[in-house]
Amino acid sequence: MGAVSTAPLPESRLATAPALERPDLLAPPVAAALRADPALAAQVLVAEIDPGLADTADFCAAYDVRPEESANCVVVAGRRGDRTTLAACVVLATTRADVNGAVRRRLDARRASFAPMDDAVGRSGMEHGGITPVGLPAGWPVLVDGAVAAAGPVVVGSGLRRSKLVLDGRLVAALPGAEVLDGLGRPAGA
């Protein structure tokens, strides 16, 4: 195993390693996606964290990661008639996904909401609180807020609660199925 390096987040207390050097810190679909794309894998780091601190606010405080350096990935379900479309939304931790506006319109859905936890976990193969845009099922739209794509290095889930990935927001925007959607992230409380 290679030496642990300092995260590319200047103020953080995350100790990172190349992601594929620590497959024990990756959900199986995440590890498979990284193995299938060596160019991507070479640019993704992983950091072990306390799983009790996986939720964004607790994580940011404990590891000195600014919320604007942390991205959340949520699974949403858009419905129109008998058709349900699952998609992932990736927004900075300073914002919330505009599910009833931008997401609903993009999915051409009559109604959109956060997917039930059992669906999100079961269909993604990832743990609740650790879902990441890396390694999602083929065919899922991955809606990425423009602020994530422009953020530089960001921290996202690893598919597990006990670790996080660090990668450039431009890489998130280039993942399979990804589409940058400006205005996807709305200020929290708006």
From TrEMBL:
Q: Which domain of life is it from?
A: Bacteria
Q: Where is the YbaK/aminoacyl-tRNA synthetase-associated domain?
A: 51-170
Q: Please give the InterPro entries that the UniProt record associates with this protein.
A: YbaK/aa-tRNA-synt-asso_dom_sf, YbaK/aa-tRNA-synth-assoc-dom
One GO MF term attached to the UniProt entry: aminoacyl-tRNA deacylase activity
| Protein known as | YbaK/aminoacyl-tRNA synthetase-associated domain-containing protein
**Which residue ranges run through the membrane?**
none
Pfam families associated with the record: tRNA_edit
